[in-house]
Amino acid sequence: MSDSSDSNIHSAENIAHRFNDEVARNGFKAKSLSRDIGAHENTLGNYVRGKVPDQWVYLARLHEKGIDIRYVLLGIDPDFAGLTSEESLLLKAYRQISPEGQEALLGLAKAYAKDGEKNAMVQSQYMEPLDYDFDLPSIKIKTDDDEKSSA
């Protein structure tokens, strides 16, 4: 085990404290949560009491060196972390369109944001469709499923 007197944010003691906070925040009991995930009943209880595996400390230190542990362990793409699936899809689409299309999309987003969602919805019910001077490109949004099926 790592030296628990280490005041580093990645020390076993600090990791155990954050783990304890998360278990409490979610309203779990260590014993029943251990059973739910298929671990020995005492496993998470040990973590709550500060006896975290050395591997946790190593992973925290890898993160400190620049390794994205959330991506490694959970597959969370760092470019899309914290986004809803709709936001992620919008960002992926934005990155695939031409600079002109990006500019048009940003202008539209700014206009809607400025007017406010409620006003924009009311206006869209009564406005004639805009006739653009350029053709908007037809795009296919690449998804993770597309990449998997082409491999």
How are the SSEs ordered, and which strands pair?
Blueprint: H1 12-25, H2 30-36, H3 43-48, H4 54-64, H5 69-74, H6 85-96, H7 99-115, H8 117-126, H9 144-150
Please tag this protein with its features.
151 residues; mainly alpha; 60% helix
Q: In brief, what are we looking at here?
A:
The chain has helices spanning 12-25, 30-36, 43-48, 54-64, 69-74, 85-96, 99-115, 117-126, 144-150. It is an all-alpha fold and 151 residues long. Helix 7 (99-115) crosses helix 8.
Q: What form results from the Cα inertia axes?
A: elongated
> Helix count?
9
Q: How large a portion of the residues is in β-strands, by DSSP E?
A: under 5%
Distance linking N and C termini: 41 Å
Number of strands: 0
Biggest beta-sheet profile: none
* Radius of gyration based on Cα positions: 24 Å
Q: Can you give the mean pLDDT?
A: 78
Helix/sheet category: mainly alpha
Explained architecture:
By secondary structure, the chain is mainly α. The chain has a domain at 12-65. The protein is 60% helix and 0% strand. The two termini are 41 Å apart.
